[in-house]
Amino acid sequence: MTQINHSELHSFIANVFLKKGMSKEHAQISADVLTFADLRGIDSHGVARLSGYLRLIEAGRINVNPQFKFEHRKKTQIRMDADGSIGLVSAHLAMQECVKTTHDYGTAFAGIYNSNHFGVAAHHAIQGFQHNYIGFAMTNASPLVVPANGIERMLGTNPICVAIPGKNGRSFILDMATSTAANGKLEIAQRNGKNIPEGWAIDSLGEPSTDSNILSKKGALLPLGSDQEHGFHKGYGLSAWVDIFSAVLTGASWGPWAPPFVSFLQPKLDAPGKGLGHFVGCWDLDGFNDLEESQNQLEDWIQRFKGSLASKNKEVLVPGEPESRMMDERLKTGIPINPEVWKDLLNISEALNVKL
Amino acid sequence: MTQINHSELHSFIANVFLKKGMSKEHAQISADVLTFADLRGIDSHGVARLSGYLRLIEAGRINVNPQFKFEHRKKTQIRMDADGSIGLVSAHLAMQECVKTTHDYGTAFAGIYNSNHFGVAAHHAIQGFQHNYIGFAMTNASPLVVPANGIERMLGTNPICVAIPGKNGRSFILDMATSTAANGKLEIAQRNGKNIPEGWAIDSLGEPSTDSNILSKKGALLPLGSDQEHGFHKGYGLSAWVDIFSAVLTGASWGPWAPPFVSFLQPKLDAPGKGLGHFVGCWDLDGFNDLEESQNQLEDWIQRFKGSLASKNKEVLVPGEPESRMMDERLKTGIPINPEVWKDLLNISEALNVKL
């Protein structure tokens, strides 16, 4: 593993996007989102994706000079045409617009269409933290997941993120895929030559599979809950909610038409909308109750939960806590980059003549 | 099973609440919510709960003449002191306030504290359907569920409901407990003398249990996902989100202090807030995109999903579809009432001299 300092990594990513024609502002935002993912240990959504984004730029599927159009359809509801932008930037700027609107109304939400992969949801959701705004972010994604009872890939791992700012930098950040396991977990099992647990995936006939390569054999991921007995209609329902808010209602391509992240698969020509879709927004914490009282209660909640009885050798954590611990560590020690990704980065560095 | 016509059941429930001192308006609303649950086949949240509500009224824990206080803290954020009301009424009226506010701003949300059990979430969420408003509803509940890695009952089955109005009466209604299985499913297994599947519950030491009576032996329910390998930190995170929005931020009693539904268990004296808490709200469908376009897309989405490939002898359904089918049926054939519940209702009828 190569270790790299987060600010060096940030500069590299920003310079790469600059070289590909992005504005300075957009390159900075893109680097912010990817570096944040790596700092928080969400390695699948950090710099490991850089070469994927570059291939989409080269394939003409990501527009590095988008003209965003904001439509304020209602006082607190915004629609954004992302003009083929990288989602890292469009979702960020849509959230900034929500933050501004929340100053006046207490809440604001934006639906974004004609976009691309937006990276790690939590980075968008925390944009209102300095104003004590709760953040919300969802996105649809390439179809890999079956509905409950289904065997066809109809949904992405469609994440939901809710981020609630607390006292003393301690916050509640739930950022979860709505499938039982994310694709990245299957890739780790593949690399290690291991099987996956039952309940993560099915084969093309709908039978349970423990083959970590099942996605390359027309298998599919299962929604959170894994099977009927364990409530997979709930994971399906959550994923469907994300698809509808992010894409069906915004004008993006939904369900099985959501454009694939990989550049070698073409988006389908009969798609019902444009690009990927996202949904982001805020609630003002002060709109619930007196701000200080709310933050004191949230702090008490965090302490009570962390202090609750745990299974042997286990610890009860607050959503977002493992990532926040990882961030503290990686800010000090640097970010470990796995050898394959590092090779990728060296190739990019050489091809674009950007110092790594 | 006794079958009862839904409007007869509705009259009975309303008359019972009237006899207990509720206003005509509140008795009607309460009867609406409970009858709706029975019509949709959510029998655990319908008239089966009537005797429970009555016992809470008799114990002085439900106030039948509440003075609601609405505080419009921001233009789109409302706080409601429910003054000990039955939640069936407080959540309904808070949602009505959100619907009115949404006319002006496109969205509105209300946090409710000092309340009681609010019945089936979907009834609150659909209150804006005639205006084409998407509805949202959550509530915290008596602690029965452990956090991921925990063995202490810290959370309720804390439901999340999202209801999206479609064309031709076809809608998307997700209304789900955030635990793997709801308490009602354990009760059914108990009645049938059956074990429960692994992954629903643990015993007091945190070991997996298949005993359907485990809750009476200090066991607890597991969050959606069931175990670490299958993502129970996600179910925990969702349940925690509900607890925070409904109670921590509104001023209600949260987590292990959420007041029990049963009247023989007393709320804890050191509770950090007042009563149960709910969170409800709306988004205007027309605020996402042109209304007709959105509803056409939603209809296409529903048809595409229903037509997708299913496992052998299975069917892919849209969230809310089983309940909507049940409602069509029960509107015609009446509502079946199980013998124990029927006995309960006859007792109530006799004691209060209300015709059944």
In words, what does this structure look like?
The structure is a homodimer of 356-residue chains. Chain A folds into 2 domains: 2-180 and 222-289 and 325-352, Ribosomal Protein S8, Chain: A, domain 1 (2-Layer Sandwich); 181-221, 2-Layer Sandwich (Wheat Germ Agglutinin (Isolectin 2), domain 1). In chain A, the strands form 3 sheets. A 7-stranded mixed β-sheet of chain A has the order 2-3-4-11-5-6-7. In chain A, strands 9-8-10 form a 3-stranded antiparallel β-sheet, with no helix packed on it. The first copy, chain A, has helices at residues 6-19, 24-39, 50-58, 87-105, 121-125, 183-191, 232-248, 291-306, 321-333, 339-352, and strands at residues 2-4, 69-74, 77-81, 107-115, 133-139, 160-164, 172-176, 201-202, 208-209, 220-221, 276-284, 335-337. Chain A is built from 10 helices and 12 strands. In chain A, strand 8 (201-202) and strand 9 form a beta hairpin. The interface between A and B is large, with 85 and 85 residues.
Brief account:
Two copies of one chain form a homodimer. By secondary structure, chain A is an alpha+beta fold. The first copy, chain A, has helices at residues 6-19, 24-39, 50-58, 87-105, 121-125, 183-191, 232-248, 291-306, 321-333, 339-352; strands at 2-4, 69-74, 77-81, 107-115, 133-139, 160-164, 172-176, 201-202, 208-209, 220-221, 276-284, 335-337.
Helix-strand sequence of chain A: EHHHEEHEHEEEHEEEHEHHEH
* Total number of strands of chain A: 12
Q: Biggest interface and its residues per chain?
A: A-B, 85 and 85 residues
Across the major sheet of chain A, the strand order is 2-3-4-11-5-6-7
- Under the CATH scheme, which class of the largest domain in chain A? Alpha Beta
Please, what is the average pLDDT of chain A?
97
CATH architecture of the largest domain in chain A: 2-Layer Sandwich
Give the fraction of residues assigned to helices of chain A. 25-40%
Oligomer classification:
homodimer
Individual helix count of chain A: 10
Low-confidence runs of chain A (pLDDT<50, min 5 residues)? Answer: none
Number of domain modules of chain A: 2
Under CATH, the topology of the largest domain in chain A can be stated as Ribosomal Protein S8, Chain: A, domain 1
* Annotated CATH homologous superfamily of the largest domain in chain A: Malate/L-lactate/L-sulpholactate dehydrogenase, NADPH binding domain
* Bulk shape of chain A: globular
Percentage of residues in strands of chain A: 15-25%
Backbone CA Rg of chain A: 20 Å
> Which structural class do you get from the secondary structure elements of chain A?
alpha+beta
